[in-house]
Amino acid sequence: MKAPWSATARQRRQAGQGSWWSGLPGVVYLIALVLLPLILIFIYSFLSRAKLGVGVKWQFTLTPYTELLYSESLSGGRSFDPTYLQIIANSFWYAIITSVVCLALSIPIAMWLATRPPERRTALVFAVTIPFWTSLLIRTYSFIIILNDNGPINGFLKGIGIIDEPIAMLYTPFATVVGLVYTFLPFMILPIYASAERFDFRLAEAAYDLGAAKWTVLRRVVLPSIRPGIIAGMVLVFIPALGSYLAPELLGGGKTSMIANVIAAQFGASRNWPFGAALSVLLLVITLLVLVVFAVVAKRASRAAGRGGWEALI
Amino acid sequence: MTNHSTKTTGSKKTTGSKPAARRQRRSRRGVGLGLRDFPTFKAVSYLVFAFLYLPLVFVVAYSFNSNRVVSVWRGFTFSWYSEVLGNDDIQRALFNSLRIGVVATVVSVVLATGLAIGLLTMARAGRTFAWTLIGAPLIIPEIVFAIGTLALFVQSRIPLGVNAITLAHIAFCVPFALLPIRARLRGVDPAVYEAAADLGAGEFTIFRRMTLPLLAPGIVAGALLAFIISLDDFIVSYFLAGPGGTTLPVYIFGMIRNAVTPGVNALSTLMLVASILIVSLSYLLARKRR
């Protein structure tokens, strides 16, 4: 339904509001620097490895994809090699744990934020977004300080006499997941908050009047209402967590590689660009599949993601 | 959804005792009835805020540590700041970062302003396509974007370094620059343009004298966001840096890799302060008269 003043495109243009072609430079630029690189990566994934490593040899092959499952020995024989499957599975596992932990932390804080007085709410929500705007590298680095053997956590535990020897936390999968949760927590809080803010608290009141217990209200009234926010939050956390590079690189200590680290290695030390490209294509396909799955789960998710996700950051 | 939930909970009505007393108790609680009675929510919220800010606090605190080993506190000093600020390599990296940030900001804001205006009158298909392109850098994993642009530059023989990084940064700065501008543009009453047109103003005059001034706060807010995003970027810069394109985050990464001294913290603290100041400024501008 259109409001009476919402004119058609033609009328608006006549009123001097500019024209569609003003968007053209932006579209052309993004085609050149977003679409073209993706197409190139797709093409690279079907090419052969360059002799000296940098770049590719323009010769069609499916090797980059078979390399995902088989390793080729020097004699030319092929054998099944689960290394990369394992890394992909690990990446999924870390992304799932990250999403679930973020969700568990975000529902309480989102509900708490939504029940603050409106004037304080804006400031608090801004406070949630601030860490997002600081450098991802520095945020990840901060956990090197916190989790290392001499860090404040081990120092505190030693100080109060719980432990004698420091607990090894840094360079473990645990550190990676903590770093991932820290990085993506705002992406879960904001969309859930956006849903919670629209929640009509009179419904909770009605439920109480009808004799519902606290947890019943939460489970049967509140949670269904904030479901779009939860789904949007899951998308916004799971997808970037799956493709994370810095947390496993700096906090995992090489023991917890994720897909992105393997991709980076192919374009760095391993010098196998086509294989790196194939892994990138795989990561993109997984990303799109996850988006589709979530979109099917809730058609409203994408809209809520737009409204409560990165748009809410700004 | 909610209707059905309230209906089913109704079956437990028998537990109700004295409605009047309960109503009175509730009226004192005000908005968010009953939910404030989840003490865990409040506790978890406080913990989450601590979790969000403590890591940053530790980075800042240890930047004043006189011990070379970052996390073992010895005493208070400012010396890491003077050491970091006096380092030639860091100055070069800072200069690179600023140069990339300023150019990427200016170009992305111009493109984003054009897009914001153009999106209003684009045909539906074009608009969907444009939005997909704009949102893509936010959805595709950063590593894929980084190696994609690396492949593009190597393939088209564009040398790696400061200029390559700038070209790539522009692409992912556009969405961040666009959102505040678009929010501003949507708040403008179309009648003002009609009035201007009725008074005989041409397209260009309207753009220069009306659209631009009206959008100005959004444009500045968008520019600030684009600048931080460029300044803080690590992954894309890392892959496109080449020999001469070391930016501040790329330099910090090297420091973390080699030997972590409180110098890393001093440099990080300066970057944190810059980011937080800029985003707060952008926030204030964007909220102004919204």
TrEMBL record, chain A:
Gene3D superfamilies assigned: MetI-like
Single GO biological process annotation from the record: transmembrane transport
Record keywords, A-Z: Cell membrane, Membrane, Transmembrane, Transmembrane helix, Transport
Iron found in the keyword field: no
Localization (cell): Cell membrane
Membrane topology: Multi-pass membrane protein
Alphabetized PROSITE patterns for the sequence: ABC_TM1
UniProt xrefs under InterPro entries: MetI-like, MetI-like_sf
Keyword Transmembrane helix: yes
One Pfam family cited in the UniProt record for this chain: BPD_transp_1
GO cellular component: plasma membrane
Ranges of residues in domain ABC transmembrane type-1: 88-294
Membrane-crossing residue ranges in chain numbering: 20-47, 92-113, 125-147, 167-193, 229-247, 275-297
Protein family membership: Belongs to the binding-protein-dependent transport system permease family. CysTW subfamily.
Protein name per Swiss-Prot or TrEMBL: Unannotated protein
Lineage: unclassified sequences, metagenomes, ecological metagenomes
UniProtKB/TrEMBL annotation, chain B:
Membrane-crossing segments per the record: 43-64, 100-123, 129-153, 160-181, 214-231, 238-260, 266-286
Topology in membrane: Multi-pass membrane protein
Entry annotated with the keyword Iron: no
The ABC transmembrane type-1 domain, residue ranges: 94-285
Entry GO terms, CC: plasma membrane
InterPro entries: Bact_Polyamine_Transport, MetI-like, MetI-like_sf
UniProt keyword list: Cell inner membrane, Cell membrane, Membrane, Transmembrane, Transmembrane helix, Transport
Alphabetical list of Pfam families matching this protein: BPD_transp_1
Chain intervals for the UniProt region annotation (Disordered): 1-28
Comp. bias (Low complexity): 1-18
Localization of this protein: Cell inner membrane
One of the protein's GO biological processes: transmembrane transport
Keyword Cell inner membrane: yes
General function of this protein: Required for the activity of the bacterial periplasmic transport system of putrescine and spermidine.
Family: Belongs to the binding-protein-dependent transport system permease family. CysTW subfamily.
Protein name: Spermidine/putrescine transport system permease protein PotC
Natural source organism: freshwater metagenome
UniProt lineage: unclassified sequences, metagenomes, ecological metagenomes
